[in-house]
Design goal:
The chain has one helix spanning 21-46, and strands at 59-65, 75-83, 88-97, 99-103, 110-117, 120-136, 140-152, 159-162, 166-167, 175-178. By secondary structure, it is mostly beta strands. The strands form two sheets. The protein has a six-stranded antiparallel β-sheet, with no helix packed on it. A four-stranded mixed β-sheet has the order 4-1-10-8, with no helix packed on it.
């Protein structure tokens, strides 16, 4: 006996396949539970949710000194501006100061500063190499620098000397500015 497409088999009246619903539900529930546990484990183990309380901006620290004697000097007024191709940023504007700190440009290997000391203007260029530094897992990375050289005009600045080449997060003095 042969059948063509669309014909019914006379011997089979109905085809019933019985799969217990409870076993399917149990299997789906166990897959869902394992997935949820795995996602929770990844969520708790992946990243720290602690806030960052550490300093993440390395600063170039400069001490003002009297030319000839080397004694700490207190400038009547000091203004320091960072100058780039696209912007000028005022970092320091202070009276009666003997120490100042400025950030180096993390996207360049040199920073240009316009320094107005007691009303007299000078320019200083600081050359450096940058290195990524992991502050902590919560704070991420920053750039620390090694000073490789410098240039300055000499209107009021007598000498600019590198004391410590490493510009990092420890707050040590980097330059001595004699005027």
């Amino acid at each position: 006996m042969s059948f063509t497409l669309g014909q019914r088999c006379p011997h089979i009246t109905s085809l019933n396949i019985f799969i217990p619903l409870s076993s399917v539900m149990n299997r789906l529930l166990s897959i869902f539970s394992l997935t949820a546990v795995a996602l929770l484990a990844l969520l708790f183990a992946s990243c720290s949710v602690q806030p960052c309380y550490e300093d993440t901006d390395p600063l170039l620290n400069t001490l003002l000194l009297t030319a000839g004697t080397g004694e700490t000097a207190k400038a009547d007024s000091l203004r320091v501006n960072g100058v780039s191709l696209t912007d000028t940023i005022e970092f320091v504007d202070a009276l009666s100061v003997s120490f100042f700190s400025v950030p180096l440009d993390p996207s360049e290997d040199q920073s240009l500063f316009h320094i107005i000391l007691n009303g007299v203007s000078d320019t200083a260029v600081i050359y450096y190499t940058r290195h990524p530094h992991l502050v902590s897992p919560e704070c991420g990375y920053t750039f620390v620098s090694e000073i490789t050289g410098l240039k300055t005009t000499h209107n009021i600045i007598d000498t600019l000397i590198i004391e410590n080449k490493s510009v990092n997060l420890n707050g040590e003095k980097n330059l001595h500015l004699f005027y």
